[in-house]
Amino acid sequence: MMGGNDNQGVVFHTVKIEDLSPANHPLRRIRKMVNTGRIRELCAPLYCANNGRRRGWLFQQTVNMCVRVARANSATRHWKR
Q: Which phi-psi region, left, alpha or beta, contains residue 52 (left: φ > 0; alpha: ψ -120 to 50)?
């Protein structure tokens, strides 16, 4: 890129997630109770150890399985008469 424009500060924005929710938001209390280490442990097989990106096929298979389970559960619960 060529040019003498020094307005780089306008291009980049820094936002902290804490600034996006009020101090009394319920998710702040829930976050303190969640064991993120356990979640990371359970989700580790879904991500590449080298770069932290999702493993495409495994992630998609997991999503598909969750969708099938959710549909089966909702079909048996809501459609019984």
A: left
